[in-house]
């Protein structure tokens, strides 16, 4: 337990952390990787270059300072981060290393303002927070191992089939190299793939949503080639260009807290995706078609145009299996004819498929997610009916600037 003095000191640092947080976390990562470059085998290098990881950690530290006396408030976000950590193989021995350089970064950025009392209070607070993560993650490791075909860490798989789904998305069917089955998972969850890419000093980890309903035979991921923005996606391009049928990759067990509530059959499900965000929605739709086809379901997907729209026919076939299925394709290109709407997913589109008794699942690029979630809130949708998933570290999507913590 933290002393009241430490609680008061940590909470008093919240205003300066709000202003200096990203500067502190940027300094932290520089120190961390300079002294422990082996940790680059775990972290996503692209998120580092884009600054997303630094911003996400700054949000976490800021929220911890605000709620250090009410850690239960942070528990949902802690569990979300813990899922990511478990899928990456984070271990208890990593936490003291992180704590050491986080305190050094606070001192480096704040200078004399980081008094001995402040550093001592934050050292005490970090120890408490780290133990919460360690305990939760160990529970997750044990739960994963206890499942049929479950395992801890990474396991070697091979590519049983490689299928081009669109101009930019390719599916990989992954089977265990030992010939065994794969653990079950919740529709919407993801796996981490770990690759050694040519000319890269460290292994690269990326998390990809599983894009089919659970089977015992394989995992399927459907990967978008990230080639338009800098830095280009090293892993996605390597998978597309160099990983072929028969090749091996290391894969974590499924993880994540964004998934379909299979038992909530009395509520309509709206599966709303943009671009490659369609992948977890496919798993959800496939599961509904197999297990609860009577459930009211709307599938809303936005794409730039038909060429980059993957799984169009698959989705049509799955929706056709439902008793009350609705389908909506939205293309940005106004010249596309095979679209229910052209432009963007907005309140006008959503109002045709969503009501007060709808569970809305949203996934896609950050601008798409922000637009859709904002529209749903403006329509009066309850927060408990809005579920969303980010690729990489989460961004702040809380209404009215309420605090959230992100990985």
TrEMBL record:
GO terms for molecular function: nitric oxide dioxygenase NAD(P)H activity. Its EC number is 1.14.12.17. It comes from the Bacteria. InterPro entries: Cbr1-like_FAD-bd_dom, FAD-bd_FR_type, Flavoprot_Pyr_Nucl_cyt_Rdtase, FNR_nucleotide-bd, Globin, Globin-like_sf, Globin/Proto, Hmp. The record marks 84, 389 as: Influences the redox potential of the prosthetic heme and FAD groups. This is Flavohemoprotein. It catalyses: 2 nitric oxide + NADPH + 2 O2 = 2 nitrate + NADP(+) + H(+); 2 nitric oxide + NADH + 2 O2 = 2 nitrate + NAD(+) + H(+). Its cofactor is heme b; FAD. It is an enzyme of class 1 (oxidoreductase). Belongs to the globin family. Two-domain flavohemoproteins subfamily. Binds 1 heme b (iron(II)-protoporphyrin IX) group per subunit. NADP(+) binds at residues 275-280. The active site is at 95 (charge relay system), 137 (charge relay system). Residues 149-407 are annotated as: Reductase. Consists of two distinct domains; an N-terminal heme-containing oxygen-binding domain and a C-terminal reductase domain with binding sites for FAD and NAD(P)H. It comes from Bacillus seohaeanensis. Residues 1-138 form the Globin domain.
